User: What shape does this take?
Amino acid sequence: MRKLNPAHIEGAKAFANAIPCLNWLDIKVTDITLGGCQVEVLLQPHKHMTPFNGPYGGLYASLVDSATWWAIYGEADEDAGFATLDVHVDDLGMTGGGRLITEGRRVKLGRSICVAEAFVRDEAGKLLAHGTSKVMIAPNLPTIDDVLQQRGEPRLPPKFLDV
Assistant: This one.
């Protein structure tokens, strides 16, 4: 069984939390596990909320996309490059503010197509949105280490520990 390297996971979270779009939306990747991920955002009225006092659907989509992508990342091979193929989100409830916690989990890790799902809840555990995503793994897609190398930054430590 594979075991994730905690040093790699810390580096991957730092990488994720520096992605400009997620940074602008104040979305934080707080945990990455084998086939799982947790993503959080503290709702800001001027940034995340509609005039009708609910989060924009696009925020839910960004949370689902991020949580599903990083859930797949946590289990995929270290040299895998991948990209989101689609995201489907069902808006199931409203909240007027607070923190949203999104749990992503791998449903199927295939050789080239992966499926993951995510649940967006408020701090009390109320389900606000559910989504699914398909992610493509392909050898020609850049890895995190490829991006870091392009930036002149050091590579992450190995992703998996020998068990």
